[in-house]
Amino acid sequence: MSLLELTPSGLYCPQADIFIDPWKPVDKAVITHAHADHSRWGMKHYLAHHHSEEVMKLRLGQDINIHTVGYNDPISINGVDISLHPAGHIPGSSQIKLAYKGKIVVVSGDYKVEDDGLSAAFEPVKCHEFVSECTFGLPIYKWESQDLIFQKINTWWKSNADQGRNTVLFAYSLGKAQRIINNLDLSIGEVFAHGAVWNTNQALIANGVKVVDIEKVTQDTPKNRFKGSLIIAPPSAMGTPWMKKFSPYRTGICSGWMNIRGARRRSAADAGFVLSDHADWEGLITAIQATEAEKVYLTHGSTAVFGKYLQEELRIHSVELETLFEGDRLDASED
Questions:
Q1: Model-level pTM greater than 0.85?
Q2: Residue 98 backbone phi and psi in degrees, to 5
Q3: Which site from 86, 217, 247, 320 is most exposed, i.e. has the minimal number of CB atoms within 10 Å?
Protein backbone atom coordinates (compact mmCIF):
# COMPACT_ATOMS: atom_id res chain seq x y z
CA MET A 1 0.00 0.00 0.00
CA SER A 2 1.12 3.55 -0.63
CA LEU A 3 -1.85 5.73 0.30
CA LEU A 4 -2.49 3.32 3.15
CA GLU A 5 0.09 1.22 5.01
CA LEU A 6 -0.11 -1.45 7.70
CA THR A 7 2.04 -0.48 10.70
CA PRO A 8 2.48 -1.91 14.21
CA SER A 9 -0.11 0.63 15.37
CA GLY A 10 -2.62 -0.15 12.62
CA LEU A 11 -3.69 1.10 9.21
CA TYR A 12 -1.90 4.37 8.47
CA CYS A 13 -2.18 7.04 5.79
CA PRO A 14 1.24 8.77 5.76
CA GLN A 15 0.14 11.63 3.50
CA ALA A 16 -2.57 12.73 5.95
CA ASP A 17 -0.74 11.40 9.02
CA ILE A 18 -3.84 9.60 10.29
CA PHE A 19 -4.59 6.08 11.47
CA ILE A 20 -7.82 4.21 10.84
CA ASP A 21 -9.05 2.15 13.80
CA PRO A 22 -5.57 1.97 15.38
CA TRP A 23 -4.95 -0.60 18.10
CA LYS A 24 -2.25 1.42 19.85
CA PRO A 25 -2.39 5.04 21.07
CA VAL A 26 -1.69 7.52 18.26
CA ASP A 27 -2.13 11.23 17.62
CA LYS A 28 -4.98 11.20 15.08
CA ALA A 29 -7.45 8.32 14.67
CA VAL A 30 -10.35 7.98 12.26
CA ILE A 31 -12.84 5.47 13.67
CA THR A 32 -15.09 3.28 11.51
CA HIS A 33 -17.42 2.39 14.39
CA ALA A 34 -17.61 2.24 18.17
CA HIS A 35 -17.11 -1.51 18.78
CA ALA A 36 -14.19 -2.19 21.10
CA ASP A 37 -11.88 -3.80 18.55
CA HIS A 38 -12.11 -0.73 16.29
CA SER A 39 -12.52 2.10 18.80
CA ARG A 40 -9.85 1.99 21.51
CA TRP A 41 -8.80 4.21 24.36
CA GLY A 42 -5.72 6.45 24.29
CA MET A 43 -5.90 8.46 21.05
CA LYS A 44 -5.20 12.20 21.26
CA HIS A 45 -7.78 13.02 18.58
CA TYR A 46 -10.74 11.01 17.28
CA LEU A 47 -12.77 11.51 14.11
CA ALA A 48 -16.00 9.54 13.76
CA HIS A 49 -19.61 9.77 12.59
CA HIS A 50 -22.13 11.80 14.60
CA HIS A 51 -23.97 8.68 15.77
CA SER A 52 -20.81 7.25 17.33
CA GLU A 53 -20.03 10.22 19.58
CA GLU A 54 -22.00 9.49 22.75
CA VAL A 55 -21.31 5.75 22.64
CA MET A 56 -17.58 6.40 22.28
CA LYS A 57 -17.72 8.80 25.23
CA LEU A 58 -19.63 6.19 27.24
CA ARG A 59 -17.00 3.56 26.52
CA LEU A 60 -13.79 5.60 26.33
CA GLY A 61 -14.51 8.50 28.69
CA GLN A 62 -16.43 11.75 28.49
CA ASP A 63 -13.20 13.72 28.16
CA ILE A 64 -11.98 12.20 24.87
CA ASN A 65 -11.15 14.71 22.15
CA ILE A 66 -13.62 13.76 19.44
CA HIS A 67 -14.75 15.52 16.27
CA THR A 68 -17.71 14.12 14.37
CA VAL A 69 -18.99 14.51 10.83
CA GLY A 70 -21.93 13.29 8.77
CA TYR A 71 -21.87 10.89 5.87
CA ASN A 72 -20.52 12.20 2.55
CA ASP A 73 -19.16 15.28 4.34
CA PRO A 74 -15.49 15.40 3.27
CA ILE A 75 -12.65 17.05 5.08
CA SER A 76 -9.19 17.62 3.63
CA ILE A 77 -5.90 16.94 5.42
CA ASN A 78 -2.69 17.73 3.57
CA GLY A 79 -4.36 17.17 0.20
CA VAL A 80 -6.11 13.92 1.19
CA ASP A 81 -9.90 14.12 0.99
CA ILE A 82 -11.39 12.02 3.79
CA SER A 83 -15.07 11.16 3.91
CA LEU A 84 -17.32 8.72 5.79
CA HIS A 85 -19.89 6.53 4.03
CA PRO A 86 -22.55 4.20 5.48
CA ALA A 87 -21.38 0.68 6.31
CA GLY A 88 -24.73 -0.67 7.56
CA HIS A 89 -23.05 -2.51 10.46
CA ILE A 90 -24.36 -0.57 13.48
CA PRO A 91 -25.46 3.05 14.05
CA GLY A 92 -22.63 5.37 13.06
CA SER A 93 -20.64 2.65 11.31
CA SER A 94 -18.68 4.08 8.41
CA GLN A 95 -16.50 3.20 5.49
CA ILE A 96 -13.55 5.57 5.36
CA LYS A 97 -12.78 6.92 1.90
CA LEU A 98 -9.33 8.38 1.21
CA ALA A 99 -8.83 10.23 -2.07
CA TYR A 100 -5.48 11.65 -3.14
CA LYS A 101 -4.22 12.64 -6.59
CA GLY A 102 -6.82 10.53 -8.39
CA LYS A 103 -6.39 7.41 -6.26
CA ILE A 104 -9.18 6.21 -3.98
CA VAL A 105 -8.82 3.74 -1.11
CA VAL A 106 -11.76 2.67 1.05
CA VAL A 107 -11.50 1.04 4.47
CA SER A 108 -14.85 -0.58 5.16
CA GLY A 109 -14.49 -1.47 8.84
CA ASP A 110 -17.28 -4.00 9.50
CA TYR A 111 -20.36 -3.99 7.30
CA LYS A 112 -23.52 -5.75 6.20
CA VAL A 113 -25.56 -5.18 3.07
CA GLU A 114 -29.06 -5.86 4.44
CA ASP A 115 -30.84 -2.67 5.52
CA ASP A 116 -31.69 -3.28 9.18
CA GLY A 117 -33.84 -0.17 9.60
CA LEU A 118 -31.60 1.04 12.43
CA SER A 119 -28.23 1.81 10.83
CA ALA A 120 -27.74 3.87 7.70
CA ALA A 121 -27.88 1.32 4.87
CA PHE A 122 -24.61 0.20 3.28
CA GLU A 123 -23.56 2.27 0.26
CA PRO A 124 -20.88 0.87 -2.07
CA VAL A 125 -18.09 3.32 -2.83
CA LYS A 126 -16.16 2.90 -6.08
CA CYS A 127 -12.43 2.78 -5.44
CA HIS A 128 -9.11 1.40 -6.58
CA GLU A 129 -8.35 -0.45 -3.34
CA PHE A 130 -10.83 -1.79 -0.80
CA VAL A 131 -10.11 -3.07 2.72
CA SER A 132 -12.78 -5.61 3.61
CA GLU A 133 -13.57 -7.80 6.58
CA CYS A 134 -14.52 -11.41 5.90
CA THR A 135 -15.70 -12.60 9.31
CA PHE A 136 -18.21 -14.93 7.66
CA GLY A 137 -16.25 -15.48 4.44
CA LEU A 138 -17.30 -19.08 3.84
CA PRO A 139 -20.11 -20.33 1.53
CA ILE A 140 -21.90 -21.99 4.48
CA TYR A 141 -22.86 -18.56 5.79
CA LYS A 142 -26.10 -17.44 4.18
CA TRP A 143 -28.45 -15.26 6.20
CA GLU A 144 -32.22 -15.38 6.13
CA SER A 145 -34.00 -12.02 6.00
CA GLN A 146 -34.21 -10.23 9.32
CA ASP A 147 -38.02 -10.14 9.02
CA LEU A 148 -38.05 -13.94 9.14
CA ILE A 149 -35.58 -14.05 12.04
CA PHE A 150 -37.63 -11.59 14.10
CA GLN A 151 -40.78 -13.55 13.36
CA LYS A 152 -39.02 -16.60 14.85
CA ILE A 153 -37.84 -14.62 17.88
CA ASN A 154 -41.31 -13.21 18.60
CA THR A 155 -42.94 -16.63 18.18
CA TRP A 156 -40.43 -18.19 20.58
CA TRP A 157 -40.94 -15.39 23.11
CA LYS A 158 -44.73 -15.80 23.01
CA SER A 159 -44.40 -19.55 23.45
CA ASN A 160 -42.24 -19.03 26.53
CA ALA A 161 -44.70 -16.49 27.94
CA ASP A 162 -47.65 -18.84 27.34
CA GLN A 163 -45.77 -21.49 29.32
CA GLY A 164 -45.21 -19.11 32.23
CA ARG A 165 -41.52 -18.62 31.47
CA ASN A 166 -39.58 -15.41 31.04
CA THR A 167 -37.25 -14.93 28.07
CA VAL A 168 -33.63 -13.76 28.22
CA LEU A 169 -32.06 -12.94 24.87
CA PHE A 170 -28.30 -12.38 24.60
CA ALA A 171 -26.95 -9.95 22.02
CA TYR A 172 -24.13 -7.43 21.64
CA SER A 173 -25.01 -4.33 23.64
CA LEU A 174 -24.15 -2.00 20.75
CA GLY A 175 -25.98 -2.47 17.46
CA LYS A 176 -27.56 -5.89 17.65
CA ALA A 177 -29.44 -5.25 20.90
CA GLN A 178 -31.09 -2.11 19.50
CA ARG A 179 -31.86 -3.88 16.23
CA ILE A 180 -33.71 -6.56 18.19
CA ILE A 181 -35.51 -4.12 20.48
CA ASN A 182 -36.90 -2.18 17.53
CA ASN A 183 -38.37 -5.34 16.00
CA LEU A 184 -40.00 -6.99 19.01
CA ASP A 185 -43.77 -7.51 19.18
CA LEU A 186 -44.55 -5.44 22.26
CA SER A 187 -48.07 -6.87 22.45
CA ILE A 188 -46.54 -10.07 23.86
CA GLY A 189 -45.22 -8.49 27.04
CA GLU A 190 -42.82 -6.04 28.60
CA VAL A 191 -39.21 -5.66 27.47
CA PHE A 192 -36.33 -4.91 29.85
CA ALA A 193 -32.65 -4.17 29.33
CA HIS A 194 -29.48 -5.12 31.16
CA GLY A 195 -27.64 -2.00 32.36
CA ALA A 196 -24.99 -2.25 29.62
CA VAL A 197 -27.70 -2.37 26.95
CA TRP A 198 -29.76 0.39 28.56
CA ASN A 199 -26.77 2.73 28.87
CA THR A 200 -25.95 2.15 25.20
CA ASN A 201 -29.57 2.83 24.25
CA GLN A 202 -29.47 6.17 26.05
CA ALA A 203 -26.23 7.18 24.33
CA LEU A 204 -27.63 6.37 20.90
CA ILE A 205 -30.93 8.13 21.63
CA ALA A 206 -28.96 11.21 22.71
CA ASN A 207 -27.31 11.18 19.26
CA GLY A 208 -30.66 11.00 17.47
CA VAL A 209 -30.79 7.26 16.74
CA LYS A 210 -34.35 5.93 16.89
CA VAL A 211 -34.40 3.20 19.53
CA VAL A 212 -37.47 2.04 21.47
CA ASP A 213 -36.77 3.29 24.98
CA ILE A 214 -37.25 0.29 27.28
CA GLU A 215 -36.85 -0.03 31.04
CA LYS A 216 -33.59 -0.95 32.76
CA VAL A 217 -33.42 -3.95 35.10
CA THR A 218 -32.52 -2.73 38.60
CA GLN A 219 -32.33 -4.27 42.05
CA ASP A 220 -35.61 -2.55 42.84
CA THR A 221 -37.55 -3.97 39.88
CA PRO A 222 -40.21 -6.29 41.39
CA LYS A 223 -39.81 -9.89 40.23
CA ASN A 224 -43.48 -10.08 39.21
CA ARG A 225 -42.80 -7.40 36.59
CA PHE A 226 -40.75 -9.91 34.64
CA LYS A 227 -43.63 -12.38 34.20
CA GLY A 228 -43.86 -13.17 30.48
CA SER A 229 -41.31 -10.49 29.66
CA LEU A 230 -38.24 -10.46 27.43
CA ILE A 231 -34.91 -9.26 28.81
CA ILE A 232 -32.07 -8.15 26.50
CA ALA A 233 -28.59 -8.73 27.91
CA PRO A 234 -24.99 -8.89 26.65
CA PRO A 235 -23.34 -12.33 26.32
CA SER A 236 -21.20 -11.55 29.39
CA ALA A 237 -24.32 -11.87 31.58
CA MET A 238 -24.83 -15.50 30.60
CA GLY A 239 -24.60 -17.84 33.60
CA THR A 240 -24.05 -15.05 36.15
CA PRO A 241 -25.97 -14.56 39.44
CA TRP A 242 -27.73 -11.59 37.77
CA MET A 243 -29.87 -14.15 35.90
CA LYS A 244 -31.50 -15.62 39.03
CA LYS A 245 -34.08 -12.84 39.31
CA PHE A 246 -35.73 -13.95 36.04
CA SER A 247 -36.39 -17.58 36.98
CA PRO A 248 -38.15 -19.49 35.48
CA TYR A 249 -36.70 -18.50 32.11
CA ARG A 250 -35.49 -19.66 28.73
CA THR A 251 -32.37 -18.25 27.10
CA GLY A 252 -31.59 -17.45 23.49
CA ILE A 253 -28.59 -16.02 21.68
CA CYS A 254 -28.45 -14.01 18.47
CA SER A 255 -25.29 -14.53 16.41
CA GLY A 256 -24.13 -15.42 12.94
CA TRP A 257 -22.32 -18.34 14.56
CA MET A 258 -25.72 -19.94 15.24
CA ASN A 259 -25.51 -20.90 11.57
CA ILE A 260 -23.05 -23.64 12.60
CA ARG A 261 -24.40 -26.89 13.98
CA GLY A 262 -23.35 -27.27 17.59
CA ALA A 263 -22.78 -23.57 18.27
CA ARG A 264 -25.98 -23.23 20.30
CA ARG A 265 -25.06 -26.29 22.36
CA ARG A 266 -21.61 -24.86 23.08
CA SER A 267 -23.15 -21.54 24.09
CA ALA A 268 -25.43 -23.35 26.58
CA ALA A 269 -28.47 -21.38 25.37
CA ASP A 270 -31.92 -22.90 24.90
CA ALA A 271 -32.39 -21.31 21.48
CA GLY A 272 -30.19 -19.81 18.81
CA PHE A 273 -31.10 -17.27 16.15
CA VAL A 274 -28.91 -16.59 13.12
CA LEU A 275 -28.73 -12.80 13.30
CA SER A 276 -25.48 -11.07 12.41
CA ASP A 277 -24.41 -7.48 11.86
CA HIS A 278 -21.80 -8.70 9.36
CA ALA A 279 -22.22 -9.58 5.70
CA ASP A 280 -22.63 -13.23 4.78
CA TRP A 281 -20.77 -14.91 1.89
CA GLU A 282 -23.00 -13.45 -0.82
CA GLY A 283 -23.09 -10.07 0.89
CA LEU A 284 -19.31 -9.85 0.91
CA ILE A 285 -19.13 -10.72 -2.77
CA THR A 286 -21.87 -8.26 -3.68
CA ALA A 287 -20.23 -5.44 -1.74
CA ILE A 288 -16.76 -6.04 -3.15
CA GLN A 289 -17.92 -6.31 -6.76
CA ALA A 290 -19.89 -3.07 -6.38
CA THR A 291 -16.72 -1.18 -5.47
CA GLU A 292 -15.05 -2.22 -8.75
CA ALA A 293 -11.78 -2.30 -6.77
CA GLU A 294 -8.65 -3.54 -8.51
CA LYS A 295 -7.20 -4.85 -5.26
CA VAL A 296 -8.90 -6.04 -2.07
CA TYR A 297 -7.23 -6.34 1.32
CA LEU A 298 -8.89 -8.85 3.66
CA THR A 299 -8.95 -8.64 7.45
CA HIS A 300 -10.19 -10.98 10.22
CA GLY A 301 -12.15 -14.09 9.41
CA SER A 302 -11.76 -16.63 6.64
CA THR A 303 -9.22 -14.53 4.75
CA ALA A 304 -7.42 -17.44 3.04
CA VAL A 305 -10.52 -19.18 1.69
CA PHE A 306 -12.30 -15.99 0.70
CA GLY A 307 -9.16 -14.51 -0.85
CA LYS A 308 -8.63 -17.63 -2.94
CA TYR A 309 -12.21 -17.39 -4.23
CA LEU A 310 -11.79 -13.72 -5.15
CA GLN A 311 -8.62 -14.46 -7.11
CA GLU A 312 -9.52 -17.72 -8.80
CA GLU A 313 -13.24 -17.23 -9.45
CA LEU A 314 -13.70 -13.47 -9.69
CA ARG A 315 -10.20 -12.51 -10.90
CA ILE A 316 -9.89 -9.87 -8.18
CA HIS A 317 -6.42 -9.46 -6.71
CA SER A 318 -6.60 -9.99 -2.95
CA VAL A 319 -4.11 -9.66 -0.10
CA GLU A 320 -4.49 -10.89 3.50
CA LEU A 321 -3.79 -8.38 6.26
CA GLU A 322 -2.86 -9.44 9.78
CA THR A 323 -4.80 -7.05 12.01
CA LEU A 324 -6.10 -7.06 15.57
CA PHE A 325 -9.71 -6.65 14.44
CA GLU A 326 -11.81 -9.49 15.82
CA GLY A 327 -15.17 -9.25 14.08
CA ASP A 328 -18.14 -11.10 15.54
CA ARG A 329 -17.28 -13.46 18.42
CA LEU A 330 -19.70 -15.81 20.12
CA ASP A 331 -17.97 -15.23 23.46
CA ALA A 332 -17.74 -11.46 23.15
CA SER A 333 -18.12 -9.69 26.47
CA GLU A 334 -18.44 -6.07 25.40
CA ASP A 335 -19.97 -5.71 21.95
A1: yes
A2: -115, 125
A3: 247
